Amino acid sequence: MPRELSEKDIEILKKLAPECGDLTCSGSGHTFHSILPPVSNHFSEDENDFAERISRLSDEELTYIAGMIEKGEESMGCLPEEDVDSLVKLIHDRLSDEVAKRVISAYESGYVCEH
Question: Can you state the angle between helices 97-108 and 81-94, rounded to 10 degrees?
Fold first, then answer.
């Protein structure tokens, strides 16, 4: 579901992708509606780069993103599987197995990709 990025979302996006000049997808010309897809698909060079970028998140930011995923407000649908795996592992290791399971469940329920 498309959403407007909040100031908090933009702050997190800029933390993960400081080279992000504006909030527009270069491919579609549309404004980003999520944090993770642009980081994964536009700014990360590969799965290792994505994993390094998301490791910059504080536990509070990671909790926020996990909550947004659970509510269907943050998209993971167009992330490569290896980036989903990295995110779930980070959530498991830093937050809890239960939160990781809820994120996996939200991912498997098939939320649509919204950059």
Answer: 150
